[in-house]
Amino acid sequence: MNDMNVREPIPLPPAVVPAAYEDGLLKTADLNAPIAVQVKVWAGAITGYTVRLDLDGVPVTDERVLTDGDKVGDTITLHLSETHLVNEGLHALEYRICNPLTGDEVFSPSIPLIVDRTPPGAPVLAPLFFAEGSVDGNATAILPGYSGMDTGDVVQTLCNGVPGPMHIVQPDELTVRPIEIVFQQDFLLSLGADTVAIDYVVVDRAGNESMRSLPMTISLTS
Fold first, then answer.
1. Which residues on adjacent β-strands are paired with residue 35?
2. CB 169, CB 151: distance < 8 Å
3. Burial of 133 (0-12, 13-18, 19+ CB in 10 A)
4. DSSP per-residue codes, 96-137
5. How confident is the model at residue 29 (pLDDT cuts 50, 70, 90)?
6. pLDDT value at 5 more than 60
7. Rounded CA gap, 45 and 80, in Å?
8. What's the start-to-end Cα distance of the chain, in Å?
């Protein structure tokens, strides 16, 4: 690796967290173990320089010392302990490089990490709404808004306990138009019942699953 003077501005690339969505959201299931963070060895890095992670301006890893085997462009993987991601909300992750001989240091641009552990729909999910109490043909249900509704939420319906149509919440359904879910006649008739109790659960992008909604019972006519 080539020598460099860390007193000069260094264009460091931001860290990369493969487990995070593009906006920085982490899946709840991944918060039970350390989160892998990738850092590219920067131009001009030399053996003996160190790199560490900072979260919200606080050091959260030991210093990782560059060795002769670390070449410019290589990827170094550091691990952010899950104990630093207990609190919900938006966090800022960056890394610091340092020349231990002089104490000179440079910080990378920060990236967002979002922790969301709250299931959608609390304290209750309202039942689906059907325009008519009995159904002859396909049935369209309106899903009312719920607490924490967001783009990318997955709505899974259950019909007499059997998984029914699934719907992914779209951006315009948050403000412009209601969520509509179509239940095909053939599916409803395949349940072999005169009445069908329909409820649903919501799973957000972080993987948090809601309670089951209040049910709505419809009658099938032939």
1. 80
2. yes
3. exposed
4. EEE-TTT--EEEPPPEEEEE--PPTT-S-PPPPEESSSEESS
5. very high
6. no
7. 22
8. 78
pTM higher than the cut 0.70: yes
Q: Give me the domains of the chain, ranges plus CATH numbers.
A: 28-115 (2.60.40.10), 129-220 (2.60.40.3580)
**What's the mean per-residue pLDDT of the chain?**
92
Q: Name residues whose C-beta falls within 8 Å of residue 51's C-beta, 6 or more positions apart in sequence.
A: 39, 63, 64, 66, 76, 78, 95, 96, 97, 98
Average pLDDT over residues 122-136: 81
Query: Residues 6 or more apart from 135 whose CB is under 8 A from it?
Result: 183, 185, 188, 218, 219, 220, 221
Write out the two tokens for 158.
Answer: 């259950």
Judge whether residue 7 has pLDDT over 60.
Answer: no
Question: How far apart (Å, rounded) are the C-alpha atoms in residues 143 and 130?
Answer: 9
Instruction: Copy the structure tokens of residue 47.
Output: 């053996």
In which band, very low, low, confident or very high, does the pLDDT at 44 lie, cut at 50, 70 and 90? Answer: confident
* Burial of 210 (C-beta count, 10 Å sphere; 0-12/13-18/19+): buried
Structure-model confidence comparison of residues 9 and 93, the more confident one:
93
